[in-house]
Amino acid sequence: MVRQSTKRNKDSDVPKVITRPPVIYAFFLMLSFILQYVFYLYVARNFWVVNVGVAMMISGVVIMMIAIRQFKAAGTSYEVSVPSKVLITDGLYQHSRNPIYVALTLVYLGIGFTLNNLWTVIFILPILMAVHVGVIFPEEEYLKKKFGRKYTNYFKQTRRWF
Questions:
Q1: How many CA atoms lie within 13 A of 74 on its CB side?
Q2: Does the reported pTM lie above 0.70?
Q3: What angle do CA 75, 76, 82 make, to 5 degrees?
Q4: 122 Cβ contact list (under 8 Å, min separation 6)
């Protein structure tokens, strides 16, 4: 019984997101693979599309690694299911409030370009809408409640994306 009470308290100190963001990207990536198999749509048939895709994936992985390292250095978690201990506003986070989501988007699109799958490009709008409404908005409300004026000032000064 005490464990349930602790769990409820822990659950109340996390944003109420629809799911973990990588799940959204993975779902649409799998859907794009299925549709690509059934209805083949290509981005373009040339060498440059693959190079752009690889560059996007590498950029996304590097951005993600830097952002995750910032969380670890600050002593907090980047997972939406774990309570935030501190508000990170320096490094990548002084340029974007959501560099990990930027990174996930770059990796997702990079995979699509590299594999010449236009469905990934078609699905980017629904992905960004789902992340925006189902993840970012709840996170912002949570951070406003948790960090108050400090987050409000950060929110006003820093873009949501890059």
A1: 18
A2: yes
A3: 150
A4: 32, 41
